[in-house]
Amino acid sequence: MSSQDMYSASEPFSSQTAPANSTLRVLVASLIGTTVEFYDFYVYATAAVLVFPHLFFPSGDPTTALLASFAVFGAAMIARPLGAIYFGHLGDKKGRKFTLVGALLTMGVATFLIGLLPTYAMVGWLAPLLLVVMRLAQGFALGGEWSGAALVATENAPAGKRAVFGTFPQLGAPLGFILANSLFLLIAAWLPSDNPGRPSEEFLTWGWRIPFIFSAVMVIIGLWVRLNLVESRAFNNVINQKKVVRLPLGNVIKQYGWELVLGTFYMLATYVLFYLITAFSLSYGTAPTTAAVPGLGYDYTTFVWMMVFGAVFFGIFTLFSGPWADRWGRRRFLILITALIFVYGLTWVPLLSLGEPGVIAWLVIGFGLMGVTFGPMGALLPELFPANVRYTGSGISYNVSSIIGAAVAPFIAVALWRYGGGGPFWVGVYLAISAVLTLIALLLGPETKDVDYDA
């Protein structure tokens, strides 16, 4: 890594002579890093339903084991704001590129090590403890990844195209989801089970480890791309104008506390929707119809293929959302989409009552709404903050929302479904309530489409 790549706040250099990133390099670097990060994250989400309740959380009650597995899934969300603070501090003082490389390495090492962990049968309660540690490391890394990737894309965007460029790091979410689940499907097909309710012994013994270990290959590719980046004009301006702050966290809390609150609630409905339509839906979709609290009764392979099909619409609508948000404004566009999420939450039961076409529609609509609400966030959250605290501010908003939204969403959803007495109805109500809170924040917040992004 060159001295220019590792410069400090005391070593300004002219943005007039600094090399520029090409459009292709920007888009690939922002996309591939988040794809790797989200792949790693969703590999765990799939294993949390399929593998970990059997191997790391033994219990006579399958629901208790599943809830324990989801609790560890949520633990990563607790670590994400800490990662946002740490990597945000580095990103606002040392630069976006340097910080993004560190976040990607942390995520990659943690995911690789999960693939090597001993199970409960081997080492007892040390197994879930080690899993928690690795899961916390994943969350810590993802806390620093997203905002850095969003800044690489949007700070290098042409005028009037920030939302378009900002959708490329967001596209890493559907791509990572599709890659992770497709790999699990291929392995499950290679190691088929005779029991529809339980993976094969070969899969539980060693097959589940392959997706975690495979992540090392993707991390190497992501590092190679990111090491070829140069810093953006916006960050160079911060250096040259001596606007670097000593403690970005203190500055952003003191001067931009309202923006932190707005950004946190902007993301709430998005987080709840996504983790319901992925982690919860897999549990509900594959639970037997004959159980005391019935699910949809699909076998794992069939339902995951349905989810992958839905995730394709996630990717398509993520890309579409950028031009729409640039044309109509982030606020107006997201108010409309959040209102649709509210309606969607209240119409789950009628959709699911239509049989398989209704289930497919439930997944496709949910993933489609996820795309159009998630896409503009790559531009909207960073636009709330000036360049010298943008990494920290956008990262904290994004990741604090993960605690009140994503961390508890699968856990609350399973509890509402199993113990709430209304099946999936109360899960939909839970989503609708989160949409109302996001709508309130959007109505109170400003339009950011035309802010000076280099300042």
From TrEMBL:
**Gene3D superfamilies given for it?**
MFS general substrate transporter like domains
Alphabetically ordered keywords of this record: Cell membrane, Membrane, Transmembrane, Transmembrane helix, Transport
Please report the record's description of how this protein sits within the membrane. Answer: Multi-pass membrane protein
Does this entry carry the keyword Transmembrane helix? Answer: yes
- CDD domains per UniProt: MFS_ShiA_like
Q: What is this protein called?
A: MFS transporter
Species name for this entry? Chelativorans composti
Q: Which InterPro entries match?
A: MFS (IPR011701), MFS_dom (IPR020846), MFS_trans_sf (IPR036259), Sugar_transporter_CS (IPR005829)
Q: Which residues cross the membrane?
A: 65-86, 98-117, 171-191, 203-225, 260-282, 302-321, 333-353, 359-384, 396-419, 425-445
Could you tell me where this protein is found in the cell?
Cell membrane
Residues forming the Major facilitator superfamily (MFS) profile domain are: 26-449
